[in-house]
Design brief:
The structure is a single chain. This protein is of the alpha/beta class. The protein has one domain: Vaccinia Virus protein VP39 (Rossmann fold), CATH 3.40.50.150. Helices cover 38% and strands 24% of the residues. The chain contains 8 helices and 7 strands. Strands 3-2-1-4-5-7-6 form a 7-stranded mixed β-sheet, with helices on both faces. The chain is globular and about 40 Å long. The two termini are 30 Å apart.
Length: 217
Amino acid sequence: MQTGADPAPPSRRIRLTGRAINALVAHAPFTWPLLRGFSHRFWQEQAATWDQRVSRSGPGHLAPLAAALLLVHPEPERALDIGTGLGDGALLMSREFPHARVRGIDLSEEMVRRAQDRIGLDPDGRVAFKVADASALPFEDDSFDLVAQLNMPPFFGEMARVLRPGGFAIVAASWGERTPFYTPDSVLARGFRRAGLDEIERGEAAHGTFFVAQRAS
């Protein structure tokens, strides 16, 4: 669900809808089943032309995520991109951490199909994509050293569950407060703290913002 040369941010209607969904997920994640169907349909419809949107955005839409990745040390062995869309975040992580195995998940089957087409055959399986719901990640506890998401509502409990001790969580927003799925820093700090993660750093890059937290070792 990735949304910089920065085009005009999404319309006011889309921003308000996204912020409403984001607030519900962040404060009352039990409401997500009521929103899942709408979100799935929306992203399925967007998948066919999403690459055009990303192209118009230019590389700047990834700048907040890229800035946050610089704070991740040591290099992770396994990394997860939640709401990967066409795979831009996952592919960025694979370039930044060339020895890591990277997984990208998205609610939309069409997004995942198109993301997988971008990497073609990968005999080593270093990068792979999977259809999955961020509220119920299909991975065992302590599976990843890094869990990141760009322009997505945060499911704090699931992010913390799949993180190994000492692992990092990143939440980035391409347009900062203008991003439809934007979570204020105060909400991120409180949500991660309750999930057992400590804030490492928050900041800005290009037109966006990022927040980095770490699970206690």
